[in-house]
Design a protein that fits this description.
This protein is of the alpha+beta class and about 240 residues long. The protein has two domains: about 5-80, Glutaredoxin (3-Layer(aba) Sandwich); about 90-235, Up-down Bundle (Glutathione S-transferase Yfyf (Class Pi), Chain A, domain 2). About 55% of the residues lie in helices and about 10% in strands. The chain has nine helices and four strands. It has a four-stranded mixed β-sheet with strand order 2-1-3-4, with helices on one face. The protein is globular and about 50 Å long. Bound molecules: glutathione.
Length: about 240
């Protein structure tokens, strides 16, 4: 009947030289590539309006609509018998899960802070994210959204730290990731695993973004992380 059954990934779209402005969308995007699943992307912030969790990403797959990067990956792994983690022990799987949550729940907020609250970076981000809006929307929308984001940065707690402390918090994560990766090809050895989708999305959000600030400079100072994200980008996205 010509019904298009391909998986649809709803995201914000390519911004700042990244596969998607959101690392959560980037994570699913990378996972789909690593799993060799066919999909198409729908890039429009307004898709939030029809997202089951009111956030991006979400996917549509036939009659199923699934929100949240973690739940999407669990769904795809099950439905399409994707075996990215079959070479991991139970203990490695447990480590991978908790590492992923560290990036989702802690490094993520350093990223949001650096884009939306850091004064110099915000001026650039504002122009990139809201390009093409006519006045007065070009003035009002970024202002309103920034206020909302800054409120959540305060509620979450990250913005109660000084700028220097936030750079150190992010730096601590980069150092830990760099030590864990060491000279391996992927985080759990020679073969790619689900965690690499998360790691790629979050590390590249800093070291492949067209933004120059202290956090991004810090991320770029880890040679093995830079080689890792460059390699994954080349392998799956170039
Ligand atoms: N736990 C969610 C987080 C997704 C998320 O935070 N998305 C942000 C963009 S990075 C979003 O859609 N924010 C819009 C809003 O909260 O209104 C996941 O893993 O997918």
């Amino acid at each position: 009947m010509g019904t298009h059954k391909m998986i649809k990934l709803y995201g914000f779209g390519k911004k700042l030289g990244l596969i998607d402005a959101s690392p959560f969308v980037g994570k699913v995007h990378t996972f789909l590539k690593m799993a060799s699943l066919e999909y198409e992307t729908v890039s429009n912030p307004r898709s939030i309006g029809k997202s089951p969790k009111g956030k991006l990403p979400f996917i549509e797959d036939g009659d199923n609509t699934i929100g949240d990067s973690q739940l999407i990956i669990e769904y795809l792994t099950e439905k399409y018998a994707v075996d990215l983690d079959s070479h991991l022990s139970q203990q490695e799987k447990a480590n991978a899960y908790l590492l992923g949550k560290s990036l989702d729940e802690n490094l993520y907020w350093c990223l949001v802070w650096s884009r939306w609250q850091h004064e110099d970076t915000w001026q650039i981000v504002k122009n990139v994210f809201f390009k093409g809006l006519p006045f007065p929307l070009s003035y009002n929308i970024p202002k309103t959204l920034r206020k909302k984001v800054m409120k959540s940065l305060y509620a979450q707690g990250i913005s109660r730290h000084s700028e220097q402390e936030i750079v150190e918090i992010a730096g601590h994560t980069f150092q830990a990731l760099s030590d864990l990766l060491a000279d391996k090809r992927y985080f759990f050895g020679d073969k790619v695993s689900t965690f690499d989708a998360t790691a790629y999305a979050f590390i590249s959000a800093f070291n492949q973004a067209a933004l120059d600030n202290d956090i991004n400079r810090k991320a770029k100072s880890f040679d093995n992380l830079q080689a890792y994200t460059d390699r994954i980008k080349q392998q799956y996205f170039d």
